[in-house]
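ingest -> validate -> predict -> emit
validate: passed (alphabet ok, no gaps, 453 aa)
predict: started
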Amino acid sequence: MYEGISRTTAGVLTLGGVNALSLAERFGTPLYVLNEQVIRGRCSHALTALQRLNPCNRLAYAGKAFLSIAMCQLVAEEGLHLDVVSGGELHTALRAGFPLERIYFHGNNKLPDEIVYALSSGVGQIVVDNLKEIEDLNQISSQLRLASPVRVLIRVTPDVLGGTHSHIETGGASSKFGLSISRGLAMVAVRRVRKSEFLSFSGIHCHIGSQITSTKPFFTALSKVLGFARNLQAEEGVEVAEFNMGGGLGVPSTVSEEGLPFTSWAEGIVSRVTTAAREMSYASIPLVTLEPGRYIVAPAGVTLYTVGSIKVSSDGTRFVAVDGGMGDNPRPALYNASYEAVLVGRDQRGLHLRDGRADVVTLVGKYCESGDVLVRDAHLTGIAPGDIVAVLGTGAYNFSMASNYNRLPRPAMVFVSEGASHLVVRRETYDDIVARDLPISRQTGRGSVAGNS
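emit:
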């Protein structure tokens, strides 16, 4: 499951053909490492599988999993579309020169200035999440005097749970995302878009959650979406041109977890959409768009840390502390996410991993929280201060959710490929952390703060 990872004859971990010890020495730790060839391979496999079913189908990378200028460029080169959810993600895509017509702009509360930015930039598709957004799009579109109507997909809520952690469920009746099919809000949204001279209804979007390991929730949600499409045809005479079923297929983080094959997911969705379209006598088969993020980048990522203190608590727990933690990977604290850790190896003096029993330790970070635990029950043989540890499968939602908690700088990121390494995000410095801070004005009275004059 861990692609692009091997060991030298001396027992040292290599990532994309690059010695991991040399990466730690050259770039420092904590260090995010992404294998470019693994990402490209997964993009190519998924796009080929999807377009083999229908050449018009689209694969959109969900940028929230991990986004940088380099990642946008890679995704563009592989022929994918891109899903962005904020002005900041959009700005990253624009700075990278990503093709505007291949961008989907998502978000449950798009701010007016974000909408202006998207429309004035020429973003290809807007995924509408609520009725107020339709009003905002109408008003802003009319003010901008765009050459053509804005292409709009309506995000619907099918009242289907994905069977995953509650924090990453997005398709249930209590979800903050989308417009309810059962309550009639999705139908209201389509009608309002179709009445607008500034908007063009181009399809339906539905995303029910993340880390889903069974096709059943996806297909149940799709049946609700196709039922809505039938109602649209009966009541409005509308044929849906695009069914965007989001992402969310599960990717294993440990060897004990199971993932969901992309092909079975994609084939099941496309075949059901095709069958329904023929039953409804559509003039043409709708295109299907899928938006994987974690599937593309999670297996490509490894985070390198340096071991610091090691101590045993009164109950016998052996804690191994590293120089990062929940600031660069908050997922274990947020979702009880599981990861695996391995020792990178020894330097030329040690030659290889120490022999001996497999020590069971709790790998923790340096942040001032008891919940700052990266890996429980990690089997790390003979671990000692100064060793380099690799936490595997960290390509998704680590970099993108990183913070400066405790005012610690965020790590650098390196792309590796075929024995070469390339820095794509530099390490933050202490000066970066205070760069936006402003002192209290010395012209004000004691205890007062100056205004924004």
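The longest helix spans residues 215-236.
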